[in-house]
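Is this the right way to post C-alpha cells for a design question? Let me know if I should format differently. Anyway, here goes:
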C-alpha cells in the first residue's frame, strides 16, 4: 500500500512540475512576444548574390537600402562577403538598393514584405556606364540610329 501511495504521489509531483514548466513557456500563438499587439510589423530578410560583370572584381561591396516611403527614412547598410553574397534585415517597405565598390555598382528598387525572406541576384556593372545611361538625353545620337550599308 505504501509503495502504491509513493508511485501515486510521485506521478502527481511530476505532473505538477510539468504543468508549472509549461505555464512558464510563452504562448506560441502570440506572434513572438506580442509584436502584433504593439502594431509593429516583423522585419524582412533580404539575401542575395552579386553577379559581377567584366571589369568588376570580387571583393567586399557596400550594400545600402534607402527607404522610399515618405513617412520613414529607413536606411540599412551592410557589406557583401568576398564572393558577393550578402544578407540584410530591414523593416518591411519599398527601398532602393545601392551596391558599390570602386567603379562598379548597381541601383534597383525592391519591396520587402515583413516576416519574409527575399532572395535577389544583382548584376553589378561599371558605374560610369550607369551614370551615362541615367544622364543621357531622351534620344539616341544619329550615329547609333543609322544602320551601316552592307
Amino acid at each position: 500500500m505504501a509503495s502504491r501511495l509513493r508511485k501515486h504521489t510521485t506521478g502527481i509531483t511530476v505532473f505538477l512540475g510539468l504543468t508549472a514548466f509549461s505555464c512558464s513557456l510563452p504562448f506560441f500563438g502570440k506572434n513572438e512576444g506580442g509584436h502584433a499587439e504593439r502594431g509593429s510589423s516583423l522585419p524582412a530578410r533580404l539575401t542575395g548574390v552579386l553577379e559581377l560583370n567584366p571589369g568588376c572584381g570580387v571583393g567586399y561591396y557596400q550594400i545600402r537600402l534607402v527607404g522610399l516611403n515618405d513617412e520613414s527614412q529607413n536606411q540599412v547598410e551592410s557589406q557583401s562577403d568576398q564572393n558577393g553574397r550578402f544578407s540584410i534585415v530591414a523593416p518591411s517597405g519599398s527601398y532602393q538598393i545601392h551596391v558599390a565598390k570602386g567603379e562598379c555598382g548597381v541601383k534597383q528598387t525592391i519591396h520587402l514584405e515583413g516576416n519574409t525572406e527575399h532572395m535577389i541576384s544583382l548584376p553589378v556593372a561599371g558605374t560610369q556606364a550607369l551614370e551615362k545611361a541615367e544622364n543621357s538625353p531622351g534620344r539616341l545620337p544619329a550615329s547609333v540610329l543609322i544602320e551601316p550599308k552592307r
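Format looks fine. Someone answered above. Worth noting: Confidence is low (pLDDT under 50) at residues 27-39, 129-133. Residues 2-24 form the longest helix (23 residues).
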